[in-house]
Design goal:
The chain has about 325 residues and is an all-alpha fold. The protein is built from eight helices and no strands. Helix 4 (about 150-175) packs antiparallel against helix 5 and helix 7 (about 235-265) packs antiparallel against helix 8 (about 275-310). The longest helix is centred in the N-terminal third of the chain and has 41 residues, at about 1-40.
Length: about 325
């Protein structure tokens, strides 16, 4: 059984690697078209992100690095003391690092989700399904940038966060992570979507997609961290899993496909801007579809984790524990 599972995982990694190479190759080819569109809309006195606004991104990367160092220095011993005893030796140190990451992620996504809801829920492009109050359409007033003063700050902070995650994976991931190409594809898609949408003024749709993903990531991060501690309660694990599954399916398999469908409906629209934006637009649609396919794959993996939990009556996570086979 373990051999079959390992072979399946190897095949999955090959598929993710091929998809990454394909997406990266197209990105290199089409990136210049986004810059041309950015110059084109400025000729019509349409605002774009200023160059100095992009400086927020490297500042965010540096800030995140130091915040993580602070979290690690203050919580490492506590995490070690409270980590499940099934993790021993080198696997224990790897798991401590993952719990520290999940603690940070849970805090970060809680902040971004709360900020996004409070600041953007009254915008005409923020969907009712996420708590929006005045929804008209995802592409309202496009290609003009939204007038909300927090848009650029929020977008560049999120871009910095995702670039940091990609850089961290490139530097350290292959030594510690058996799902390297799976995560590489995911992080690369996120970074490319943010950069392409920023350059093409598609920030309304970008913020909505960020809100969709951050909401489920709160529960995903906190539940992963809690469930691997010695304090984990069986019934609370059941409750967490149910809430996570519902939130995940609702945001990523219900609302997100609606966003993609709307993107398909708008192919060929936007008047005389379409010829200048179509290459970058098509690429963003491809990226969103690829992300949706990954969500379907992860939904299946999450379902298998649920089967393991309810069958055994305790927390078992074969997906996260592929490296050490503890829960196989």
């Amino acid at each position: 059984m373990n051999l079959k599972y390992n072979l399946l995982q190897l095949n999955n990694e090959c598929i993710f690697k091929i998809c990454f190479i394909f997406i990266a190759f197209i990105c290199i080819i089409l990136f210049s078209s986004c810059l041309k569109f950015r110059n084109y809309v400025q000729d019509y006195s349409i605002s774009v992100f200023k160059v100095q606004e992009f400086y927020i991104t490297p500042i965010t990367i540096i800030a995140i690095h130091f915040i993580k160092l602070i979290i690690e220095s203050n919580l490492r011993n506590w995490v070690d003391e409270n980590l499940n005893i099934k993790y021993v030796g080198e696997f224990r140190q790897q798991r401590i690092n993952k719990l520290l990451k999940w603690i940070y992620d849970g805090f970060y996504y809680s902040c971004t989700s709360a900020f996004c809801f409070i600041i953007f829920r009254n915008e005409p492009w923020y969907p009712t399904g996420l708590g929006g109050t005045n929804f008209i359409g995802y592409w309202h007033n496009y290609p003009q940038l939204p007038q909300n003063e927090w848009v650029s700050i929020f977008y560049m902070v999120q871009t910095g966060s995702h670039i940091y995650a990609l850089m961290k994976l490139i530097v350290e991931g292959q030594k510690l992570e058996s799902k390297y190409w799976e995560y590489m594809l995911h992080h690369f898609l996120a970074v490319c979507l943010l950069l392409f949408s920023a350059l093409q003024n598609c920030v309304q749709i970008g913020i909505v997609i960020l809100a969709i993903h951050d909401l489920a990531d709160i529960l995903l991060s906190w539940s992963r961290a809690y469930n691997d501690t010695i304090a984990a309660n069986k019934y609370f694990v059941y409750l967490q899993y149910g809430l996570l599954k519902f939130t995940w399916v609702y945001t990523r398999l219900w609302i997100f496909p609606q966003v993609i469908y709307d993107e398909f409906l708008n192919i060929g629209q936007f008047d005389h801007f379409w010829p200048q934006m179509k290459q970058g637009y098509y690429y963003m649609v491809i990226q969103c579809v690829a992300l949706l396919v990954m969500h379907i794959y992860w939904t299946y993996q999450m379902a298998m984790v649920g089967v393991g939990i309810f069958k055994s009556g305790k927390y078992k996570n074969q997906y996260d524990n592929r490296e050490n086979k503890i829960d196989n």
